[in-house]
Amino acid sequence: MSTPLARPGADEYAPYYHTYVRLVEDPFRQLREQPIHLRQLLASLTDEQGLLRYAPGKWSIKESLVHMIDTERIFAYRALRIARGDTTALPGFEQNDYVPASGADDRPLTGILAEYDAVRAATLSLLDSLRPQDFERRGTASNNPVTVRAMAYILAGHEAHHLGVLQERYLPLLA
């Protein structure tokens, strides 16, 4: 999209997502720059270091990355359905069930990062294909109203949140 995407109003997403929306100025720019930032953060990380948890019961770095990928896929799918005018209420998902089922800790970090790149490319391709009026469309996800515009902000904000957690809680333990 060549023109900036206006910030969604509070009525365009569930209050829970404000945590993510507030982290975004320009979702398209952030979605394009986040892979670069992620690579810089993880450039020297080994597979063994990818197993690091900053506290007992917390996800490993690899699990956090796969969570980001899974969530992006789900949010992009929601954006697609709503952008295409599908009025079916879309179900939520339980992230704490997805993470252990992902087998992330058994995967090589290089494979996780390749998957991340593929998913991000698909997300950007989808969002770039949408017309301005598509971003205004409203639907229901997780029993809450949401617009496609809000989904673009939530996508970028969710990753911004997790990049912050990686920087603040995980990486200092590796220094």
Question: Which tags fit this structure?
Answer:
175 residues, mainly alpha, Four Helix Bundle (Hemerythrin (Met), subunit A), 6 helices, globular
Describe this structure in words.
This protein is mainly α and 175 residues long. The chain has a single domain, classed as dinb family like domain (Four Helix Bundle (Hemerythrin (Met), subunit A), Up-down Bundle), CATH 1.20.120.450. It is 57% helix and 5% strand. It is built from six helices and two strands; from the N terminus they run αααααββα. It has a two-stranded antiparallel sheet. 31% of the residues are buried. This is DinB family protein. InterPro entries: DinB-like, DinB/YfiT-like.
What fraction of the residues are assigned to beta strands by DSSP?
A: under 5%
Kindly name the structural category.
mainly alpha
Number of strands: 2
Name the CATH superfamily assignment: dinb family like domain
* Principal-axis shape: globular
> Helical percent range?
55-70%
* CATH class call: Mainly Alpha
| Ends distance | 39 Å
Mean pLDDT: 96
The strands making up the biggest β-sheet line up spatially as 1-2
> Structurally, how many domains make up the residues?
1
Q: Any idea what the CATH architecture is? A: Up-down Bundle
Organism: Hymenobacter guriensis
Protein name: DinB family protein
InterPro entries: DinB-like, DinB/YfiT-like
